């Protein structure tokens, strides 16, 4: 029977707080790290807006406004907000007497959306990095020439097209998060389709293509190949990331015995949380992450 992609699940939500704890570091360290990454991402985005507005040679404020049509920029905003929410939820464990994070008290739909936001944060950055360096970036033809025309463009592109994947890798390696449900792959492709619509709305309203490979005048019938190829690549990245999460959990928990710090509430409900962990690992896959 086909699963309902809009279902939020009925089992206990993340009873041992996998989204907010790590197998290696304390919630305070993990929370501070996440908020630091969020601060860097927001600073990068806001500095880019201001710097472009101040330099007409870079397109001025018009280029800053146009940035909101680029998948790179939109996913970087997504990373900034993910790490902001994730860091806040993680630190809330240390501030709660019951060791219960804010996320555990949110409505179930918001919990499910947080799980989906996590999936975007660990999949889209690798897709952005691969497409930029593999398709869009053009190395200088002159021997010894700088890889970017200025220090600013080098820093901006490295931050948004390389460090984004470093941040995603940290989210795969450090927290105790379980592999996301397969249904998230459907939602990731659906979000890519919505972006494709945005790209052509931008062309119709602003007169430019966000990416050259979307322009039929440049790539002709290969536009469809690029579109479906990127969609397929997203599915491959999702499968690889899911396998890495499974491997990390198997290695750190099953083999090394690192179950995480503050993984269960400090109360008589600890045994119930442990039982909930078994339910969590075996319940049907829905929009909710395991």
Question: Can you give me a brief rundown of this structure?
Answer:
This protein has 290 residues and is mainly α. It has ten helices and no strands. Helix 1 (27-54) runs antiparallel to helix 3, helix 4 crosses helix 9 and helix 7 (183-206) runs antiparallel to helix 9 (222-255).
Features:
290 residues; mainly alpha; 64% helix
β-strand percent reads under 5%
Secondary-structure element sequence? HHHHHHHHHH
The number of E-state strands comes to 0
- Report the mean per-residue pLDDT as an integer: 87
CA-to-CA gap between the ends?
20 Å
Rg to the nearest angstrom? 21 Å
The level of helicity is 55-70%
Largest sheet: number of strands, sense, barrel closure: none
Q: What characteristic shape results from the CA principal axes?
A: globular
In the predicted model, the low-confidence regions spanning at least 5 consecutive residues are: 263-290
- The number of helical elements comes to 10
Structural class: mainly alpha
Give an account of the 3D structure.
The chain is an all-alpha fold and 290 residues long. 64% of the residues lie in helices and 0% in strands. The protein has ten helices and no strands. The protein has helices at 27-54, 60-66, 71-95, 108-136, 151-161, 163-173, 183-206, 216-219, 222-255, 270-282. α1 (27-54) crosses α2. The longest helix has 34 residues, at 222-255. It is globular. The two termini are 20 Å apart. 32% of the residues are buried.
Topology (elements, then pairings):
Layout lengths: L26 H28 L5 H7 L4 H25 L12 H29 L14 H11 L1 H11 L9 H24 L9 H4 L2 H34 L14 H13 L8
